[in-house]
Amino acid sequence: MTGGRAGGGSGRRVRVEALAPVMVLGPREARHLQVLRLAPGATVLVFDGQGAQAQATLAELDAGRAVLHLGEASEAAAETPQPLTLGVALLKGDKLADVVRAATELGVARVQLLVTRRADAREIGAQKLLRLNRVAEEASKQSRRAVTPDVLAPVSLSEWHWEGQLFVAQPGAEARLTDRLDWSGPVALLTGPEGGLTDDEVLSLRQRGAVAVTLGPRILRAETAPVALLGAVAALGV
Amino acid sequence: MTGGRAGGGSGRRVRVEALAPVMVLGPREARHLQVLRLAPGATVLVFDGQGAQAQATLAELDAGRAVLHLGEASEAAAETPQPLTLGVALLKGDKLADVVRAATELGVARVQLLVTRRADAREIGAQKLLRLNRVAEEASKQSRRAVTPDVLAPVSLSEWHWEGQLFVAQPGAEARLTDRLDWSGPVALLTGPEGGLTDDEVLSLRQRGAVAVTLGPRILRAETAPVALLGAVAALGV
């Protein structure tokens, strides 16, 4: 259950300005491909950071430049451009299974369980964690993903180290996820427990760089919020 | 179970260019307020069609103009600027209850049950319909909405007459809901049954003006799609 990188484990992901039949990259990207020990004929996944991605074949490579030929949209196109993590507070009963199932369909690379001030539990049994990972595996197959998300054992919110951008759904927030989302790096989304995160928790997250975003003016159940937030990402086509 | 108009049944909703401390409206809007038999001192709900709304007090009114003073964000601010309808294919078991519950939290004014080619059922019992309306009522209270959505008895997809824009979630669609959404009129969203709508059904809807929109490149369960699509709307702050 190490972090499964979206797009497969090969790491052969190349960012391009835009997807085009022939894509020419500069010295820096060429060096990157050499470090990956790629040679002409190799297949890579190209992505534009805006949600478009496809397979491409490396046609030429030297220290000065790389030329890629666009291939077909691949199986990996079912994955987000960069890994998408859902952080979710521990919830009672089967709610976490429902969240994990929907989150898997909606493209997360991992689910990080979190202990928050008002979370329904402080810990989770090994059997339940195993079961949540099985739910992710089944949902992954059903939604025809190549990647099975990892459901990671809970850590306390204050000790969670997310990668890239973090968006936290917060009643009263005015920022819109869709205005702020940037796929140049990993993306993490966070929703709280029944009763919400405390003001202090949100303040602390914001001090660490998180952006509080709206999910509309109504009160959502803790198990609805993550699906809604992930839906907003999916509705962008990623 | 008549159509509950979002924002309450009073109909005292006034569109303005933008929310401002003092808003001056022209003859046409003034006439509208007179038709509603409003007098200075009356409270109305002003909205800008972009998702912002608040209470306002009518300060002056004659045939030539109306002056409104902005009040506080109101209870009714929990409602979308125009009625939001979810059309959903009949699903098995308790799935419809789950959809109705989440849809209520996410602000729908009504849920129209639909019989589609691949729907799990052709009809629904009176008891079940009653139960779904009770689910909507409970969820409405829990999410602190002033409006209880109506869950309407199923009609066949071809006989459904929606109001305003209709967006249908369709695998392979490229249009984005968030790019097309326009609150100058009612909005309807449609998701299909397990197995999806048929190509013919989608074609027919498009011929009637519907816009097919993406929910990302993965396969979603029929009960996840409506929550995801409604989440995309809620994440815009409405």
Summarize the helices and strands and which ones pair or pack.
2 copies of one chain form a homodimer.
Chain A: E1 13-15, E2 22-25, H1 27-35, E3 43-47, E4 53-61, E5 66-70, E6 84-89, H2 95-105, E7 110-115, H3 126-142, E8 150-156, E9 165-169, H4 177-180, E10 187-191, H5 199-207, E11 211-213, H6 225-234
Parallel strand pairs in A: 1-3, 6-7, 6-10, 7-8, 9-10, 9-11
Antiparallel strand pairs in A: 2-5, 3-4, 4-5
Helix pairs in contact in A: 2-3
Quick structural gist:
Chain A is α/β, with parallel strands linked by helices. Chain A is 25% helix and 24% strand. In chain A, a hairpin with a 4-residue loop joins β4 (53-61) and β5 (66-70).
Helical residues, percent of chain A: 25-40%
Which overall shape of chain A is indicated by the principal axes computed on the Cα atoms? elongated
Instruction: Give the domain tally of chain A.
Output: 2
Mean pLDDT of chain A: 89
Task: Look at the structure and give the CATH class of the largest domain in chain A.
Answer: Alpha Beta
Q: What sequence of helices (H) and strands (E) makes up the elements of chain A?
A: EEHEEEEHEHEEHEHEH
Oligomerization category of the chains in this entry: homodimer
Largest sheet data of chain A? 6 strands, parallel
Number of strands of chain A: 11
Keywords (chains A, B): Cytoplasm, Methyltransferase, rRNA processing, S-adenosyl-L-methionine, Transferase
Subcellular location (chains A, B): Cytoplasm
Catalytic activity (chains A, B): uridine(1498) in 16S rRNA + S-adenosyl-L-methionine = N(3)-methyluridine(1498) in 16S rRNA + S-adenosyl-L-homocysteine + H(+)
Domain Ribosomal RNA small subunit methyltransferase E methyltransferase (chains A, B): 79-233
